[in-house]
Each structure stands twice: as C-alpha cells, then as structure tokens.
Specification:
Blueprint (H helix, E strand, L loop, with lengths): L3 E4 L17 E2 L8 H15 L2 E6 L4 H14 L4 E6 L3 H14 L6 H12 L3 E6 L12 H6 L7 E6 L3 E4 L13 E6 L6 H11 L1 E6 L6 H5 L4 E7 L3 H9 L3 E3 L6 E3 L40 H7 L5
Parallel strand pairs: 1-2, 1-3, 3-4, 8-9
Antiparallel strand pairs: 5-6, 5-10, 6-7, 8-10, 11-12
C-alpha cells in the first residue's frame, strides 16, 4: 500500500491528476473531532499504509498542532511525521498533490517525506494583490507601501522560491521558472487577467488550470483582494526522475532512508561528507569527536523526544 499523505485542511486536497493519484487523509482540528476519534483514524491509517506523512501550514493553530503531537505520542509510534511548510496555501496544495502522486511509486516513506523540501524549490507560488500594507511574509519596501495607497494599484508578489515584488503595469514581471511548467490559478478579488494575459506567457506556461481560492489565502497574503497563482512541474515522470536522481542515504538518527541533508521523519540534519564516521577497532580507543555520538541508533523514547514540539 502507498504511504499515506495527510493534511490539516480540505483546501490542501486538490483533485487528482489521474486515476492512480490517491486522495489525502484529513486530520481534523480538536474543535471538529474528539481525541478518541482522532486516535482511531490515525491508527487505521497506520494499519492500512504503514507510514503517515502529515502536511500542515506554518500558520496552523497551536491547538491543532498540539493535537497532532498528542496523537503521535499516545500511539507511541515513529511512523508518523509532521511537516510544516511556509509555502502559500495554493503552493502547499500543489506540493501535497505531487507527494500524493509519488506515494504510489517505488519510493520509501523516508524518501517521499524528504522529497518535500526538494520539490518545494520547483514551485513558483505568488499572488496578485491590491494592497501590500498588511503583507508580512514577503519583504515590502517603503515605496511599495506608499504605492499601495494609490487607487487602482496592483502588485504581483512571488513568495517562493525567492521573494519578489513588482507593480503591475510596469514592463517587468517576476522572474519565473526555467523549466516547462503548468500553472494553477485561484481567482479572488484582485482579478486574474494579468496572470493569464501577461505572466503566464512570460513564464512559458503550457496550460493554466483553475482551482478554488483556499480559505487561508486572505490571512496568508494580508488582504481579501487576492488572486493566487503557482507554476509547477505537472508530469509525474519528471517528478519521479527528479527524486530518483538524488543520492539516497540512511538517517544516522532514526535510520530512515532520505535524500538531501535533512531527514523527513526526525528532521535531523545529516553530517557532511567531511565529517568522520564512528571509529572502529583500535581507532575507537582514541579521542572521539562529539559529533560521532550521533551515529548510534536512538531508542524509541529518544526518537520521540527528538521530534517533540519545541518550547
């Protein structure tokens, strides 16, 4: 069975691109579901899929996040990972769908979880805003703040992979992807003509699809007059090749398979290639660097403490 992909909001579950793409499980908030029912649902997911990768926005409420940690702790399992993302709502929904696509491939749960960081770099997520006065997640200069008070002003803001801001009407457009891509568009109060008429051709977008505007978009962008857009890699074959081409290693904390320098399950950073391995034989009698102690496998209790929420 494929690794289960779970989300904390139905807005993060885009329609599947093909019949093979599974849906995502919904992890409801404490207000919508009692703890006993949440435990039963998570236990069922683990029984059916073996591992659960749960995605949540960085803006998730403290109560909802604590519920997720409580469920994982009470089940006493290290087969659940919680991945928080700073992507805008529409971009995060695209990332979740891409991981849903890859979950039916021959990748291990650890590779799928750590692939989230890799694939997020290939999602160009932004929005058209009528005002940037309350925009806090992207740097905004004083000039842009002043212009946002002028009637009829609109701005194109790119939040990922690199923050950019341009005033619509000028010749410039945000720098876009250097690969063939599709675009997803969620129309709000800011209108979509500039996105479809100017931005998409400038970025060489092959096709533009539409989706409903996520409920969290207004809070994320600081205004209700927003239209979100995101360019992404739509082809599952390209996604598969991209992930498969990265060297796989074993996490030295939790022993899960991973790609990149950070484990997708315990979030620990892996030592660089120049860091010495744990000494063996006679070499073990000499001084041992402090970093070498990370090489021993952790106990289950230590792993739970390692992934517990911070203070």
């Amino acid at each position: 069975m494929p690794t289960a992909i779970a989300v904390t909001s139905p807005d993060l579950v885009l329609p599947p691109t093909d019949p093979q793409t599974p849906l995502a499980a919904l992890l409801q908030s404490p207000d919508a579901q009692p703890l006993d029912a949440a435990l039963v649902d998570m236990h069922r997911l683990l029984e059916q899929h073996g591992y659960v990768i749960a995605f949540c926005p960085a803006s998730l409420s403290a109560a909802h996040e604590q519920r997720l940690h409580t469920v994982r702790s009470l089940l006493e399992t290290d087969r659940i990972t919680l991945i928080k993302s700073d992507l805008p709502p529409l971009g995060l929904a695209i990332l979740v769908r891409q991981l849903r696509q890859l979950s039916v491939c021959d990748f291990s749960p650890g590779v799928i979880a750590s692939a989230a960081r890799l694939l997020s770099h290939y999602i160009h997520a932004g929005a058209v805003l009528n005002s940037v006065t309350r925009l806090e997640r992207v740097p905004v200069g004083l000039t842009a703040h002043a212009r946002s008070w002028m009637p009829g002003s609109q701005f194109a803001v790119l939040a990922n992979p690199r923050p950019q801001l341009v005033k619509i009407g000028a010749a410039a457009t945000p720098a876009g992807p250097d690969f063939a891509c599709d675009m997803l568009l969620a129309q709000g109060g800011a209108g979509a003509d500039w996105v479809t008429g100017s931005l998409a051709p400038a970025w060489g977008v092959r096709a533009v699809q539409e989706a409903a505007l996520p409920s969290e978009s207004a809070a994320w962008w600081g205004t209700g007059k927003v239209t979100e857009f995101a360019a992404y890699l739509p082809d599952i074959a390209v996604l598969y090749q991209l992930v498969a081409s990265v060297r796989r290693e074993q996490c030295r904390w939790c022993a899960m398979e991973l790609i990149g320098d950070r484990c997708g399950f315990c979030a620990s950073r892996q030592p660089g290639e120049e860091e010495p391995d744990v000494p063996h034989g006679a070499a073990a009698l000499g001084p041992v660097p402090a970093s070498a102690y990370r090489a021993r496998p952790l106990t289950r209790a230590e792993r739970r403490r390692a992934i517990a929420p911070g203070p």
